[in-house]
Design a protein that fits this description.
alpha/beta; five-stranded mixed β-sheet; four-stranded mixed β-sheet; 15 helices; about 45% helix
């Protein structure tokens, strides 16, 4: 792939860009989301003959997600890549998208987001001075523990799992018959090692990179939480572009999401292979139906409006 630096240095793009858009990401350089936006930048630069540059700032250089979202709303930053979870207080529909077992699989989430429902959700961002350009993958969170393989909902009974400080997560664990233990991420390794908790939940790359696979050898791919990521643009920056340039940016963003999803899948596969080689037992397939059925009280508590209930029904009906 042509690098952004090479394009900028080439003769055909020697002149300075007429428009430079600043894009923020909290992840480090080389991470799938960062590489996705870089690919978008290359395509935009090529298709505008060097008129529009996208400058990518990784590693929280411009701030943490919630701060950079706010800056994007005000037009201080032009673009931001952030998790749906960080938009929960700004765009209410994202709260529904963060419910446990809403999606049957990563493929199901793609089918939903790349279709009419994704367009509908995207339009809700404009009311908050943001333009949704494309959806990225943020991984699927699953359970891992130090005690035993989890192959059914019954196996979770009485087990203690670290979860993020989030009421939905606590209620999810209660509905599954397990005990939620909110704690900082940095304390998880020692807490599993000393038996304070039995396990935690996260995606394969985090399970691997955190070292948790060393102390919690049993991983069950239940994918209870699949929260999308989003590339959003400041509406004030967007409105300054011509319709033709807007179309180029949107197409480049959608194209970049295909690359980002593949890069994420590759990273997951590499982490899976690594932890299995190191001795982890990974349960790849379970019957998720009992887990989903157990979420009835959680949905009754958090899906309270007719609009949210209708959205959940349509998501679940999507093939």
């Amino acid at each position: 792939m042509t690098s952004l630096a090479a394009l900028l240095a080439s003769a055909s793009f020697a002149t300075a860009c007429e428009i430079t858009l600043r894009s923020s990401d909290t992840h480090p350089d080389g991470y799938p989301t960062v590489e996705g936006v870089k690919a978008m930048a290359v395509e935009v630069l090529e298709k505008t003959d060097g008129r529009i540059c996208i400058e990518v700032f990784p590693s929280s250089q411009l701030g943490e997600e919630k701060d950079t979202i706010e800056q994007t709303q005000f037009g201080v930053i032009d673009m931001v890549r952030a998790s749906f979870g960080s938009f929960n207080d700004i765009v209410p529909v994202t709260q529904t998208m963060s419910l446990p077992y809403l999606f049957r699989s990563v493929e199901h989430s793609h089918a939903v987001l790349d279709g009419p429902i994704g367009e509908e959700i995207g339009s809700a961002f404009e009311e908050r001075d943001l333009v949704a350009l494309a959806y990225y993958d943020g991984g699927a969170r699953s359970f891992y523990n130090s005690q035993k393989p989890i192959t059914s909902i019954e196996d979770l009974a009485g087990m203690k799992f670290r979860v993020m400080q989030n009421d939905v997560f606590v209620d999810m664990m209660d509905a599954l018959g397990a005990n939620a233990t909110p704690m900082p991420y940095g304390e998880v390794y020692s807490s599993i090692q000393t038996g304070v908790i039995d396990g935690a939940e996260n995606n394969f790359p985090s399970y691997d990179s955190s070292g948790h696979a060393e102390v919690a050898k049993y991983f069950t791919l239940d994918q209870h939480l699949i929260v999308p990521e989003l590339i959003a643009m400041s509406k004030s920056s967007w409105d300054k572009l011509t319709p033709e340039d807007q179309a180029i940016l949107r197409e480049a963003a959608v194209n970049s999401s295909k690359l980002q999803r593949q890069l994420w899948a590759d990273q997951e596969k590499a982490s899976l292979d690594k932890v299995v080689a190191a001795g982890s037992e990974v349960i790849m397939e379970i019957d998720k139906t009992p887990f989903m059925e157990a979420m009835v009280p959680v949905y009754e508590k958090y899906v309270t409006t007719p609009e949210a209930q209708d959205l959940v029904e349509r998501i679940r009906a999507t093939e």
